[in-house]
Design a protein that fits this description.
457 residues; alpha/beta; Hexokinase, domain 1; Nucleotidyltransferase, domain 5; five-stranded mixed beta sheet; disordered C terminus
Length: 457
C-alpha cells in the first residue's frame, strides 16, 4: 500500500512540476513586465509591447479635502449601478441603486443602451430629490477604451456579452451626454475611468500611501501613479511633463505574454486553456492568473491525472469532461478548509458527478488546486513587484479588488510572500479596496471638479 501511495504521489508531482516555477522564473517575469511597460510608454510605442500603458488623465488622488455631492455610474456587466456620494468633512455618505440591463438592450442599438442609462439616472435623481441640482458625475466604464482626456474615452471593442451597434470607436461621454440631454437632466459626466483606477482612487481616499491598483477577479488589470517625465508619449502640456507630475497609467497587463515572452513558463495546461478560449493567443497573463480561467487550468490537470489512471480509478465523469465546468470558486472552497476537513471538497465532487473517490483522491484534488492557485498568486506578485519598482515612494499601499483576491483564502498571503522575496528591502502592503467601481468614479469626479474650480480661481 505505501509503495502504491508513493507511486501516486510521484505521478501527481510529475504532472504538477511544470506549474511550480522557481524564484528566478518569477524574477524574469518581473523583469519582462518592466521592459514591456517601458516599451508601452515610448513616444512611438513598440509594437512588440503587449502592455498598452494607457494614460488615464487622472493626475491627482483624493486627499480627504473633497466636499460636495457627486454622482457615479458603474457599468461593467448586466447591471448598471447609479450612486450618490456626499463628502462632508472627510466622511463619505453613500446611496445607490441597481438597474438591470435586458439582454436585447445589451445587443441592440447603442442609442437605446445610453437612453436606458439616462432613464436610470433620471429615476435615481428623482427618487433622491436631486432633479434640480447640477451634479458632476464620474463614469466607471469597464470595457477596453482608449482615453483622449479625462472625459473623452473611445470604446475599442465590446466584451462581457455586449454587442451594441454604433458605439465601438465612438466617445462614450458624447453618447451619454446626448442621451442625458434628451431626458433634460442637469447631470454632466466629468470623468471616465475603469474599475482598476476606481479601486486605486477609492483606497487612496483613506490611505495616502496608495499608488497602485489591481483587479484580481474574473479578469485582471493594474494601474499605478507614474511620473510624467517617464512617459515619452505624453501629449499634453509639456510643462506638466517637465515638472514631473503624476498621472495614473492603465497598464492593461492582462495582455502581457501575447508576444511570446512568457513561453518559458507556459505549460501544456495553459496552451489547452488558450486554444479553447474565445480569444486564442490573447490575454496570456490573464489566463494564467484570473478567475475566469484558473478553474479550467485545474480541470486540465485533473483530466490528465484521470487519464493516467492516478485519479478516480481512471473514470472521467461527463461533467469533468466539460470545458469550464470546474469553477474557480471551487479552488477557494476547497482550500478554505483544513486539510483534514473534506465537506467542501466532497460537495464539489458531487457537483462534478464524481461518484466514487478515495481519501487519496481528495488529497490529490486539493494538491492540484493549491498548485494552480499558488502559481497564479506568485505570477500576480511578480507583476506587482514590477510596478513597485516604478513607484518612487519608500512605502506603497497596493489597492486590490476582485472576487479571486477577496474570497481565496491564501491569495493575499502568497502574494505578500512572493513580493517580499522579489523585493526583500521594499516596504509595501496589499489592501482590499471596497467598492472602487462606484466610490472611485465619484471621487474622480470630485477631484476633477475641485481642480477646475482651482484653475478658474
Amino acid at each position: 500500500m505505501p509503495s502504491k501511495m508513493t507511486h501516486q504521489t510521484n505521478m501527481v508531482e510529475k504532472r504538477l512540476n511544470s506549474l511550480q516555477c522557481e524564484l528566478k522564473d518569477y524574477e524574469q517575469v518581473m523583469q519582462l513586465m518592466n521592459e514591456n511597460m517601458k516599451k508601452g510608454l515610448k513616444e512611438q510605442p513598440d509594437i512588440s509591447a503587449d502592455l498598452k500603458m494607457y494614460i488615464t488623465y487622472v493626475r491627482s488622488l483624493p486627499n480627504g479635502s473633497e466636499v460636495g455631492k457627486f454622482l457615479a455610474l458603474d457599468l461593467g456587466g448586466t447591471n448598471l449601478r447609479v450612486l450618490l456620494l456626499e463628502l462632508i468633512d472627510g466622511q463619505v455618505l453613500l446611496k445607490s441603486s441597481i438597474y438591470s440591463i435586458a439582454e436585447n438592450t445589451m445587443i441592440g442599438p447603442g442609442k437605446e443602451l445610453f437612453s436606458h442609462i439616462a432613464a436610470c439616472i433620471q429615476q435615481f435623481v428623482e427618487r433622491e430629490g436631486l432633479e434640480n441640482e447640477d451634479l458632476p458625475m464620474g463614469f466607471t466604464f469597464s470595457f477596453p477604451c482608449k482615453q483622449f482626456g479625462l472625459k473623452k474615452s473611445h470604446l475599442v471593442n465590446w466584451t462581457k456579452g455586449f454587442k451594441c451597434d454604433g458605439v465601438e470607436g465612438e466617445d462614450i461621454v458624447t453618447l451619454l451626454h446626448n442621451a442625458i440631454a434628451e431626458q433634460k437632466l442637469l447631470v454632466r459626466c466629468v470623468a471616465v475611468i475603469n474599475d482598476t483606477v476606481g479601486a486605486m482612487v477609492a483606497c487612496a481616499h483613506l490611505d495616502q500611501d496608495c499608488q497602485i491598483g489591481i483587479i484580481l477577479g474574473t479578469g485582471t488589470n493594474a494601474c499605478y501613479m507614474e511620473n510624467t517625465t517617464k512617459i515619452e508619449k505624453w501629449r499634453e502640456d509639456n510643462t506638466i511633463r517637465q515638472h514631473g507630475e503624476g498621472v495614473i497609467i492603465n497598464t492593461e497587463w492582462g495582455a502581457f505574454g501575447n508576444n511570446g515572452c512568457l513561453d518559458f513558463i507556459t505549460t501544456e495546461y495553459d496552451k489547452a486553456v488558450d486554444q479553447m478560449s474565445k480569444n486564442p493567443g490573447e490575454q496570456i497573463y490573464e489566463k494564467m492568473i484570473s478567475g475566469m480561467y484558473l478553474g479550467e487550468v485545474a480541470r486540465q490537470v485533473l483530466v490528465k491525472l484521470i487519464q493516467d489512471g492516478i485519479l478516480f480509478k481512471g473514470h472521467l465523469s461527463n461533467r469533468l469532461r466539460t470545458p469550464m465546468a470546474f469553477y474557480t470558486k471551487y479552488l477557494s472552497e476547497i482550500e478554505s478548509e483544513e486539510e483534514h476537513e473534506l465537506d467542501n471538497l466532497k460537495q464539489v465532487l458531487d457537483e462534478l458527478h464524481v461518484m466514487e473517490y478515495s481519501l487519496t483522491d481528495c488529497v490529490i484534488v486539493r494538491r492540484v488546486c493549491e498548485a494552480v492557485s499558488t502559481r497564479a498568486a506568485y505570477l500576480a506578485a511578480a507583476g506587482v513587484a514590477a510596478l513597485l519598482e516604478r513607484v518612487e515612494k519608500s512605502f506603497v499601499t497596493i489597492a486590490v479588488d476582485g472576487s479571486l483576491y477577496r474570497y481565496h483564502p491564501t491569495f493575499h498571503s502568497k502574494m505578500t510572500d512572493m513580493i517580499g522575496q522579489l523585493l526583500p528591502h521594499r516596504k509595501f502592503r496589499l489592501k482590499l479596496s471596497n467598492d472602487g467601481s462606484g466610490i472611485g468614479a465619484a471621487l474622480v469626479a470630485a477631484i476633477s471638479t475641485q481642480m477646475t474650480i482651482a484653475t478658474l480661481a
